[in-house]
Amino acid sequence: MITVHAYVHALPAHRDAYLEGLRALQAATRANDPGCLRYEFWASIDDPNAFVCVEEWTDMDALTAHLDAPHHIAGSAALDPYRSRPGEIQIFQSTPIGL
Question: Where are the domains of the chain?
Answer without folding.
Answer: 2-93
